[in-house]
Model the fold of this input.
Amino acid sequence: MNASELDADKIRGIIEALLMTAGQPLTPGRLVGLLKGLSGKDLRRAVDDLNERYRVGGHAMAIVEIAGGFQLATHKEYGPWVRKFHDRGQVRLSQAALETLAIVAFKQPVGRVEVDSIRGVDSSGVMRTLFEANMVRMVGRSEGVGRPMMFGTTKEFMVHFGLKSLADLPKPKELEELLAEGARRHGAAAATRDTEEQVDRDQEHEAVEIDAVDAADSAVRPPPSQNGATPSPAAETADDQ
Done:
């Protein structure tokens, strides 16, 4: 049935039903494709009307724009009760994973070597976790030597953090501190390696010096007597007399 044959209440009801059962954001193009004859302007008006009805009626939900589409979501104030009733299955990310994900999000497209350099540690395990969580994906290859893989965030990343688009990514001071901390750790690790290498070199030099002293001492030491004892200085003086 064409949308032009439906009244406004029916169109709003269809949009509400689709969003309620979708479980993921539906793009305007998808909704318009399902409701033949509905323009983008009419779709926007219907969404705005629904949200106004939810607001006036004190409903616990609203239609929000996430990842380039529309999604029916509960208000934040009801979050604790919703989570208590049913875990949405959101990925629980460790601090290391969040740190790595922040770097990928703000630097994308980015290679793993650059991520490692910023964090100061190997990130292969964390990147694998983010892949399995569908938070990052391969977006291409660098034109540099070896053509390493380049990574970026996924649509699931935007849904998870409630972002309408990547343009909505904040530019927090925390990220600058995160990158600075990674650089400090990287520098400290390099300094530690340099110190350890210097200690190893000093120990090697010390061992060589000890060997040299032992060799010199052996060269000037008197030979042992026939019975295996080394003559004392007093005995040597008596013999001379």
Q: What stands out?
A: Residues 188-210, 223-241 have pLDDT under 50 and may be disordered.
